[in-house]
Amino acid sequence: MSYTKHTQPITTKTGSVIHWDLPRIKNQVQVTCGSCKQLRLCQVTSAHNSSGLCLPCSNKTLAKVGEDHHLWKGGKTVDNDGYLLIHKSLLPLGEQTQFQEMFTHSGYILEHRLIAARTLGRNLFSNEKVHHLNALKQDNRPSNLKVLSATNHAQEHLGWIAALRAEILRLQGLLDNAGVVY
Predict the structure, then answer these.
(1) Is pLDDT above 60 for 158?
(2) Where do the CATH 3.90.75 domains begin and end in the chain?
(3) Residue (of 81, 77, 143) closest to 111 by Cα position
(4) Which residues contact 86 (CB under 8 A, 6 or more apart)?
(5) How far lies 68's CA from each of 13, 34, 78, 120, 174, in Å?
(6) Percentage of the chain surpassing pLDDT 70?
(7) What percent of the chain has pLDDT over 90?
(8) May I ask the CATH architecture of the domain 76-159?
(9) pLDDT class for 6, splitting at 50, 70, 90?
(10) pLDDT of the residue at 65
(11) What are the pLDDT digits (tens) for 81-135?
């Protein structure tokens, strides 16, 4: 985003105001910090879509976690692979302690691994995989989850692949017999 295209002030998620309408000095623009309300000059870069907070206020914000962080969205999210994640702050204190080693550095735990660990009454080992029996990654009912070794989990998926290939061949045969072009 080029800074020359903007002519109106923009308010960021943190309440900071980027004053595109005020005079600029070289490639710096005036910004009002959303926290301390101080006006300061800021280097305009492509990364300027950030908070707009001044450095001291930004450092305070970075120290905030969970509900206190400005990007908090309720403690549940979905990872890039489609699995549900839960923030530790949503768990009772006893479970936060019991399953501590299963949390990521940012304080999240995969919901299916948490449910399997609860069922077993212990932390899962890193080489244990939780298999979704119906292949739906967000169906985390205990009856749909099965804890397997990494090797057995891979074999389980190979079985699914073989079954799907067989079903595709069966369906193609039906289409061929019916004279359907596909």
Answers:
(1) yes
(2) 76-159
(3) 77
(4) 75, 76, 108, 109, 111, 114
(5) 14, 15, 20, 33, 58
(6) 84
(7) 45
(8) Alpha-Beta Complex (3.90)
(9) low
(10) 62
(11) 999 999 998 999 999 999 999 999 888 999 999 999 999 999 999 999 999 999 8
pTM of the model: 0.55
Do 54 and 37 touch, CB atoms closer than 8 A?
no
- Cα→Cα distances 122→128, 143, 162, Å: 12, 18, 33
What are 96's two structure tokens? Answer: 């936060």
- Structure tokens belonging to residue 115: 């449910």
Q: What's the per-residue H, E or C state across the chain?
A: CCHHHCCCCEECCCCCEEECCCCCECCEEEEECCCCCCEEEEECCCCCCCCCCCHHHHHHHHHCCHHHCCCCCCCEEECCCCCEEEEHHHCCHHHHHHCHHHCCCCCEEEHHHHHHHHHHCCCCCCCEEEEECCCCCCCCCHHHEEEEEHHHHHHHHHHHHHHHHHHHHHHHHHHHHCCCCC
Query: Distance between CA 99 and CA 90 in Å, rounded?
Result: 13
- What residues are paired with 19 via a beta bridge? 30
